[in-house]
């Protein structure tokens, strides 16, 4: 199985670097080196900054893609109307295992991010800056960067700046989770939808964007909209930071101009020539096939046109040697375990969908496939945060992208390939690692004994639901680690002794194949590569 991605993987650049400028000189640009590489930055008024963001078509780079200029104007308007100074938040909470581009910037170019955030704070008249991070390395880097600029959270400063730490979880990076953490609460979605531009940190209007967005703003402010537009596509100018992993020889973060063929980026990372599929946008994204990956270019519009998504910039191809549905099941179990546990679609629906996918892979036939489709459809649009919708998108995309493999599992009992684990998941030490993997055990029903008491569905509804006849509608459900205790209790409480937990069969060794990892530093690097 692939190891988890390091905090700072190999960094490459296609064309001339912008965000990664100076990476070929030092590992981390401190304030002195940052100014030597990028030069000083003059402040801009709120209107000029909003116009700049609009002229360079700057959208959020955290996944949602909301226009930054529109967000900036909304915060300014709310602040003026309420007579309250706004707050600026850098969202560096990168909790998805397949994403490292913001972590790279936070570790290696922290002052470029601060430049953009401080531009916005000055333009809005903000007196508070919050930096949210998930990892030790990013916390150390950002605290050092604030100290280099003489910024702290001490009273009496014109701008008070602080770093907060959020858990390395999928839901912790959502805007509402970051704001809740900044307010002293848990880094979880609050269960109600509020616009940060109206009420965010401390109840004040809050400008929240991810690390790359602020870095792009700083580049645009330095070189101007016209020069910024010379790079990339006219409709989506500039560069994009991508994290490329999965079935590749060299996992990396790469800065590319928009409009570069996606196939070139995949080749740069050593992806298979004809991948089975490419997951675009990360674990809340969409799969595209090898033909679409060959035709697409790096842009929101192009990827969307072929059924993909740019999202948070994660690109994950898989080769022909692994079972794509098995790979998806590993991710599905992790997504189910990442639930905030605050609403039914997330707490119950996602584990049920993961269990349904397991049933399909383990010979459940057409009935299991239909049950999986029903559960996934029931999850969409009903969650208290974006995690259920994003996870449902991943499930539906998986079912649509790998129809041949799906048919092999449903009709023939399998595709004949092992799951090699090329899609990165957290490793040991991750606080939810135990929950994010399947135990290998299965909860099974002995239909000759079952009397339809329904206690099992009450105890572990994530795995077993009751059908219209009052009997379990899902059986032979795979048991994730975080549900083992309740599954065992359901077995003990069954009055008819109809439930049992089946232990996993001995696993065959994973097949060897696919691209081999190259030694560190091997291979020819692209122009201006960082490491």
Description:
By secondary structure, the chain is α/β, with parallel strands linked by helices. The chain folds into 2 domains: 17-226, NADH-ubiquinone oxidoreductase 51kDa subunit (Rossmann fold); 324-419 and 437-502, Alpha-Beta Plaits (2-Layer Sandwich). Helix content is 38%, strand content 13%. The protein has 18 helices and 13 strands. A 6-stranded mixed sheet has the order 1-7-6-10-8-9. Strands 4-3-2-5 form a 4-stranded parallel sheet, sandwiched between helices. The chain starts with 9 loop residues before the first strand and ends in a 29-residue tail after the last strand. 54% of the residues are buried. The model is unreliable at 431-437 and 507-531 (pLDDT under 50). Belongs to the complex I 51 kDa subunit family. This is Ferredoxin.
Count of separate structural domains: 2
| Full CATH superfamily name of the largest domain | NADH-ubiquinone oxidoreductase 51kDa subunit
Number of helices: 18
Give the total of beta strands: 13
CATH class descriptor of the largest domain: Alpha Beta
Query: In which range does the helix fraction lie?
Result: 25-40%
Radius of gyration: 24 Å
CATH architecture label name of the largest domain: 3-Layer(aba) Sandwich
Q: Point out poorly predicted stretches.
A: 431-437, 507-531
The mean pLDDT is 87
Q: What coarse outline follows from CA principal-axis ratios?
A: globular
* Biggest beta sheet attributes: 6 strands, mixed
InterPro entries: ComplexI_51kDa_subunit, Nuo51_FMN-bd, Nuo51_FMN-bd_sf, Nuop51_4Fe4S-bd, Nuop51_4Fe4S-bd_sf, Soluble_ligand-bd
Pfam families: Complex1_51K, Fer4_15, NADH_4Fe-4S, SLBB
Family: Belongs to the complex I 51 kDa subunit family.
Organism: Streptomyces niveus (Streptomyces spheroides)
């Amino acid at each position: 199985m692939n190891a988890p991605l390091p905090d700072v993987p190999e960094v490459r650049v296609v064309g001339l670097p912008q965000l990664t400028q100076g990476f070929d000189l030092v590992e981390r640009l401190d304030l002195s080196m940052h100014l030597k590489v990028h030069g000083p930055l003059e402040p801009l008024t709120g209107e000029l900054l909003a116009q700049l963001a609009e002229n360079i078509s700057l959208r959020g780079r955290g996944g949602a893609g909301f226009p930054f200029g529109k967000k900036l104007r909304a915060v300014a308007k709310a602040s003026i109307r309420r007579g309250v100074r706004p707050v600026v938040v850098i969202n560096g909470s990168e909790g998805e295992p397949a994403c490292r581009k913001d972590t790279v910037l936070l570790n290696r170019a922290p002052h470029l991010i601060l430049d953009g955030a401080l531009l916005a704070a000055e333009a809005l008249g903000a007196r508070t800056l919050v930096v949210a991070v998930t990892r030790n390395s990013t916390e150390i880097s950002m605290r050092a960067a604030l100290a280099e600029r003489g910024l702290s959270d001490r009273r009496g400063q014109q701008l008070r700046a602080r770093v907060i730490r959020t858990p390395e979880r999928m839901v912790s990076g959502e805007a509402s989770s970051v704001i809740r953490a900044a307010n002293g609460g848990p880094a979880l979605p609050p269960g109600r939808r509020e616009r940060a531009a109206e009420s965010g940190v401390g109840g004040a209007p809050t400008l929240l964007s991810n690390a790359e967005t602020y870095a792009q703003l700083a580049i645009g402010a330095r070189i101007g909209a016209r020069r910024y537009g010379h790079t990339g596509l006219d409709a989506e100018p500039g560069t994009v930071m991508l994290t490329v992993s999965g079935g590749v020889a060299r996992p990396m973060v790469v800065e590319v101009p928009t409009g570069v063929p996606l196939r070139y980026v995949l080749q740069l990372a050593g992806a298979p020539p004809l991948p089975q599929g490419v997951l675009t946008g990360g674990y809340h994204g969409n799969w595209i096939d090898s033909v679409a990956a060959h035709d697409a270019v790096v842009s929101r519009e192009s990827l969307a046109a072929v059924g993909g998504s740019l999202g948070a910039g994660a690109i994950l191809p898989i080769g022909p040697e692994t079972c794509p549905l098995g790979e998806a099941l590993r991710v599905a179990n992790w997504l189910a375990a990442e639930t905030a546990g605050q609403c039914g679609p997330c707490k119950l629906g996602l584990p049920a969908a993961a269990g349904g996918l397991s049933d399909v892979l383990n010979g459940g036939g057409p009935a299991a496939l239909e049950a999986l489709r029903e559960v996934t459809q029931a999850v969409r649009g009903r969650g208290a945060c974006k995690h259920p919708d994003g996870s449902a998108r991943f499930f539906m995309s998986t079912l649509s992208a790998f129809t041949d493999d799906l048919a092999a599992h449903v009709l023939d009992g399998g595709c004949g390939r092992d799951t090699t684990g090329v899609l990165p998941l957290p490793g040991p030490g991750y606080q939810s690692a135990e929950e994010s993997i399947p135990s290998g055990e299965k909860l099974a029903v002995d239909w000759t004994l079952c009397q339809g008491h329904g206690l099992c569905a009450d105890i572990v509804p994530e795995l077993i639901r009751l059908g219209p006849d009052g009997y379990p509608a899902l059986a032979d459900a795979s048991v994730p680690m975080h549900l083992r205790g309740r599954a065992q209790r359901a077995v003990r409480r069954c009055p008819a002794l109809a439930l049992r937990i089946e232990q996993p069969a001995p696993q065959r060794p994973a097949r060897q194949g696919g691209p081999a990892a190259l030694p560190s530093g091997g291979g020819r690097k692209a122009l201006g590569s960082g490491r």
